[in-house]
Q: What sequence folds into this?
């Protein structure tokens, strides 16, 4: 079963890579950054001083945990806390700890694409917060939304932290929010972290750190292609490049070929040519403001309940209802 799922996942990866590298201009999806190495690199990114997002959201949760516990538990005696893309749960543990110390009835249902991440999260929760009832679910956001469903018999609080939604272009984000809405009942809440527009230099620094961790993270997609699809990308021929458009709030990551080269992808029986300075677009990290957030919510049929910001207004967590 596990093997089967892996094979299907591999063939989706293979076909998306074929499509992306034969398109013009070339592109690869940022969801393929995350294997064991990519997870580790992302942990390092979250610990970098330039990557302000994590600290900001950590502060927001820390300072508002009591208010959040009230909102989540309001008028119900039990609820389920779902989390999409839970990762290591570092930020969520602030809430889990507070709720469990206050004796609030709830269960925690983290969802992640990585079974490895879920296993580690479950082990650490059992150790650090043994009173928290945890139920892990492996899968993509889209698969698991169906599982979350409207049939769930308790109030659902759906957490989607870290501005993970920023990987989606607005039309995709609206579509995703619509699917979330469809999984919600009256009274359910969606709690979503969304990184804010700010000084463009601050954003560029966060996505182009001096130590080169983000560059290594970006190039990890090429390493995966080399390892999993028999590729022979020379990583040194590619540079990490970040641009930010302050008008649209879109940060974009590229890998840029410094020299002409030919890459062989054995598993796809495919040869790919790069001209000098040809690009592969690998990620978008969208930045928001209140107007854009209201527009997205409105398009998806969600309404804004309230929001929480850090002191610098770098980052906001929004609460939506159906
Ligand atoms: C996990 C999508 C929120 O876009 O900020 C970090 C990923 N990419 N540095 C982001 C990422 C480069 C991150 N998200």
A:
């Amino acid at each position: 079963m596990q093997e089967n799922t892996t094979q299907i996942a591999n063939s989706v990866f293979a076909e998306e890579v074929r499509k992306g590298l034969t398109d013009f201009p070339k592109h690869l999806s940022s969801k393929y950054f995350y294997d064991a190495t990519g997870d580790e690199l992302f942990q390092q990114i979250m610990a970098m001083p330039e990557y302000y997002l994590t600290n900001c959201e950590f502060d927001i949760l820390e300072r508002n945990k009591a208010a959040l516990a009230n909102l989540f538990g309001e008028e119900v005696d039990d609820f389920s806390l779902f989390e999409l893309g839970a990762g290591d749960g570092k930020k969520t543990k602030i809430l889990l700890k507070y709720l469990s110390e206050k004796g609030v009835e709830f269960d925690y249902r983290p969802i992640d694409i990585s079974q490895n991440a879920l296993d580690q999260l479950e082990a650490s929760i059992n150790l650090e917060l043994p009173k928290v009832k945890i139920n892990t679910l492996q899968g993509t956001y889209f698969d698991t939304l169906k599982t979350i469903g409207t049939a769930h018999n308790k109030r659902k609080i759906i957490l989607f932290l870290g501005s993970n939604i920023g990987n989606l272009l607005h039309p995709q984000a609206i579509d995703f929010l619509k699917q979330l809405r469809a999984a919600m009942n009256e009274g359910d809440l969606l709690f979503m972290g969304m990184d804010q527009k700010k000084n463009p230099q601050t954003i560029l620094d966060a996505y182009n750190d001096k130590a080169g961790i983000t560059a290594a993270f970006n190039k990890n997609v090429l390493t995966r292609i080399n390892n999993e699809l028999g590729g022979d990308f020379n990583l040194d021929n590619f540079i990490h490049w970040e641009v930010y458009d302050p008008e649209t709030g879109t940060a974009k990551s590229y890998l840029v070929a410094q020299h002409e080269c030919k890459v062989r992808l054995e598993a796809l029986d495919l040869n790919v040519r790069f001209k000098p300075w040809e690009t592969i677009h690998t990620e978008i990290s969208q930045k928001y403001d209140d107007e854009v957030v209201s527009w997205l919510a409105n398009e998806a049929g969600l309404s804004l309940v309230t929001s929480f910001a850090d002191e610098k207004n770098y980052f906001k967590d929004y609460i939506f209802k159906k």
Remarks:
- Residues 45, 53, 162-164, 166-167, 207, 214, 217, 283, 285 surround N,N,N-trimethyl-histidine (CB under 6 Å).
- The CA atoms of residues 188 and 201 lie 38 Å apart.
- Residues 52-196+288-321 form a domain with the Rossmann fold fold (CATH 3.40.50.150).
